[in-house]
Fold these 4 entries.
Entry 1:
Amino acid sequence: MPRIGSSDLTVFPLALGGNVFGWTADEATSHQVLDAYTGAGGDFVDTADVYSAWGDGNSGGESETVIGSWFAASGKRDDVTIATKVSQHPEFRGLSAETVAKAARASLQRLGTDRIDLYYAHFDDQDTPLEETVRAFDQLVREGLVRYTAISNYSAERASEWIRIAEEHDLAVPVAIQPHYNLVTREPYESEIAPLAAREHLGVVPYFALAAGFLTGKYRSSQDVAGKDREGQVSGYFSDQGLAVVDALSAIASAHTTEIASVALAWLQAQPDVVAPIASARNTEQLPALLASADLELSAEELQTLTDVSAAVPTS
């Protein structure tokens, strides 16, 4: 059970992504996925207040609402580390002090809980003074509404400045960072964010860990993804070099009698400072491959093979 940075939060090494809840997974199916994930030992659920505003008929907050109804039905709130994010909800855009305060309370209401375990600034807001944002997050911690703060999609420079401000003024210091990182998107994480995470003892919780499904092996051509819900997300990963990564994953998966997705996640879990990659499942059938990564031990040679073949993928 890895620890999230300098916090006292220890979690299952695979975070369940909530972006599909209330979007491609309805409430009943989402509850089944959450039941199956926690039943298998999982205890780390990641969402955001904006999930999934882009869905037909949605306005944002659907994922949190679904998770909240599951907490109420299951009674498992105290068994789960819940992470959510602020800055992108249509009613709460940006990171001004007022917005952060109101958005956090709206998330708490939807989740049906009295505290958020890990609260992320979802995207940088350069129109708001950074110190104002840092103080707003600290205030939530002081009020007991948030246990730990975190940042997502920040440049290394801006993340460093957040930490400097927090330390200088004795405010809550982030314990985690959430970057876009996987076998076919290794930059700018490895050259810019990874050194920061190591230096500041930040737990790394990568999103798009399976490259929107590309690293499951089910999409081998652009035709395979045409018309799918994630077409826009997956299409950007296609390249000859990216497909070579999938081929290498397939060979290693066969040697372990496991799924391609399990190997892709296991590679991420083996990287320095990575606590738990985020992966979502829109039904219970997709869960076993994700969960299996927690017990899959790749050899040093297999890890190096994947590192080498993925190094050839073009940087976007």
Entry 2:
Amino acid sequence: MVRAAVLPAVGAPLEIAEIDLPAPGPGQVRVRLAAAGVCHSDLSLSDGTMRVPVPAVLGHEGAGTVVSVGEGVTGIAPGDGVVLNWAPSCGSCHACSLGEVWLCANALTGAGDVYARRACDGGDLHPGLNVAAFAEETVVAAGCVLPVPDGVPLTDAALLGCAVLTGYGAVHHSARVHAGETVAVFGAGGVGLAALQAARIAGASQVIAVDVSPEKESLAREAGATDYVVASDATAREIRSLTGKRGVDVAVECVGRAVTIRAAWDSTRRGGRTTVVGIGGKDQQVTFNALEIFHWGRTLSGCVYGNSDPARDLPVLAEHVRAGRLDLGTLVTERIGLDGIAGAFENMVAGKGGRALVVF
């Protein structure tokens, strides 16, 4: 039996329950979790902002140790440390053929599978975003695991699976921040804190963090922020005043709300770049008029999973960790057990803290 946090229905509270995991079948791997990050996307799945087959075991940011492998699995063996990859690319769809593996059309097909059953009644369970990391152990497709890079502690490696790949990728792959540019990051949660570190690594001359909570200033500055703005109706004006009245070269929005997307756009200089990482609901409508689009000449772009290729980017991130440029520990503000996930959801809704990490 394995303990897991089960989402019984959209909008329902998580339940800690025992589940029956089968042995890994052909092309599958069984992993004992060391840690799993609690991401805002998990909250979005639980409240219906993003759709997921239910009942499900959520959790998509994790790392652990291989317990066993199924027939045909090569390159991974029992005892290996692995990072879970919730969006494995198929390699054959149109996006993959273009090298845009983060847009793979088939990445989430596994989320509709039945991967385990509730021990109490034998009811079917789906694996959240493919990997079901809110559990002591999980069974995933072999494409959903990548070796933990040398020099990265297994527990910290969980953060690489989403927060860091997304925040780092938003800065380096989507916004393509250059040395000397100015950057504003909206939202100082796990992804935002990773984006702040990424902007510092990129050599940004000024890094402005924006969040609704004054209490997050110390976290943001530790991650690399040179300035801190408490979000308000005057956010864009404050950012322009900090940048010679021009606005920043790049704004990275990590919240997913219409008001912050609009503020990020308004904070960007003429000809600058605004990258939206946050996942918002369909009710979050952002409006622009045709004249301002022409006049400002800004670029507004979406960003999925940091436009990252985990197989390519994990070794790069690991080198930053080993060199001391990327501090994974500073993203974590709370270490909890499975029973603490509901409280971590409440903190995210309230805008408190950075990343909560479930440690097994």
Entry 3:
Amino acid sequence: MKKTSTRLADGRELLYYDLRDDVVRDETDTRPLDPVSTASEIRRDPLLGDAVAIASHRQGRTYHPPADDCPLCPSRDGRHSEIPAAGYDVAVFENRFPSLAGDSGRCEVVCFTPDHDASFADLTEEQAALVLEAWTDRTAELAELPQVEQVFCFENRGAEIGVTLGHPHGQIYGYPFTTPRTALMLRSLAEHRERTGGRNLFDDLVARELAEGVRVVLEAEHWVAFVPYAAHWPYEVHLYPRARVPDLRALGEAARAEFPRVYLELLRRFDRIFGEAEPPTPYISAWHQAPFSGPADRRDFALHLELFTVRRTSGKLKFLAGSESGMSVFINDVPPEAAARRLREVAST
């Protein structure tokens, strides 16, 4: 892998991750861009104890542009985009409309491929491995920023999720705090450790799923994927490395090498859940990594990926209505065991 860092016309950082070492990235961004102006503010909710990012400047972000004006495609034929090069393997740049900026953190965009009409599931294993290298490198670099407490790599896929750019891409958030969801995991982790005399909750959870087997979707030498016992979403898969590590930086070489095959298989199964004639399955794919403070909890945290869809059956979505949105109590229409069985049925032959 070769990494090249450059700057866009408004000063934002752009990084190319290339499969070949001999690629030269010397293109310049000639667009007449105004300096990025953000109004990101973190406000604490005194009742719930969580944080809300107020980012009014995002109202003007790019919204469903036509394919021939996509800002994530390479710059070609006189059309200039966020990527000055005429081609790339993986590109990462600071978001022009960030939810978090400055002392409030950092937001980046990850372009998985120059092919506008592809998806992550269409990547080769070599390309998927390069994306994993980019995620890992960005985690390492953002960890060095004093304002970043936790790094979140994720992909929103599909209009049903709220995606406003159709080009295959993901995002990376560098939060200035430990996110509420991770804080809940850490609390459960500590309670389990106290209750069991030092046992690790993540280890016990994975061991239980492997022992029961009914919710296991895929087993590989270094990874295991299963539908969780109390899945919130109709089709939800959690992917864990068998050797517990706190974040992507600590992932072993063997697990790193095996990941592309396993992850691509899961994504391709997701597209077959509802049948071959159905449109692509919308999903959110989210890496959960340990925050950088709290060394004891950090050692005990388990890196894992959570993949889920908001589609509950053909043509119908799972909406977060009164119980979910008002009280955070999810109601799942699909039994986890049935979801796991379907995800095994659509395995690649």
Entry 4:
Amino acid sequence: MKKRTRISLASAAALGLAAGGLGIAQATANTAAPSKPRAEAPDIPVEKVQGHLGELQKIAEANGGNRAHGSKGYKASIDYIKKELDAAGFTTKVQEFDAQGAKGYNLIADWKGGDEGKTVMAGAHLDSVEEGPGINDNGSGSATLLQTALAVSEGKYEPGKHLRFGWWGGEELGLLGSSAYVKSLSDDEKSKISSYLNFDMTGSPNPGYFVYDSSKEPEGSKAVQDSLTASLKEAKIEAEPQDINGRSDHAAFSEAGIANGGIFSGAEETKSQEQADKWGGKAGEAFDKCYHSKCDTTENIDEKALNINADAIAKSVWELSK
């Protein structure tokens, strides 16, 4: 997540009916009926999300300790995500952009089918700061998004709306990748995106549970906020709405008039006693003490928060795209 000095912040099982006692026609119909693709959201296995985080950590370690814009570590991160999505049957495209003297990359992945005139898009920035590997910020959002996309493929999901996923470059230098993507779209292409969901930090070690406040966002944003809030409520989490003041990649979509929302587990801000009473953790300490630091590694992740947020994200992606 780009730092600012202040923020206001699941295949259906076969029926298994015995043929005995059924009429021939009915038995034939039951035999011929294909199994339906999974229509409900799956539980996202947190260990798979953590596996992706481990890979991103290895990439950083092999490339000077970070995955920042313009670095070999960032390009290797893009290549890793793309390989996973290509194997899962997504149509992927790498978009290049130039910024601050270096080549940047966005990765766009489209799932087959659905009404392209009503596209639900979900995204996360993939770059880190130069100071560290960026595993919470924002390996957590990127890995959660990847596993949600892979669950779409594994469940053979057939959404009513078109589904698109995006991983952005250059967020830490000023939302560069997402801005380049939105600017590359025609007005007609923008109008076809019914909502954009952003996931920037989903596993903070002293976690908060925030959803983006829709009150200042384009029409339709409240439906996104309400969906994410309800998805967290299923896990008995009372989320707080927070105005994150345009500090992440939803901002480019917001400026284009696209309904948006997201989940955020907290960064450098201090957790209050009231929040600690509600969510657990330690009052008086930062949500992420390793924010933008060398210690933002796989050790800097709260597994419970990562799991809760991953399931909530999948539920909302399924709900909003049905």
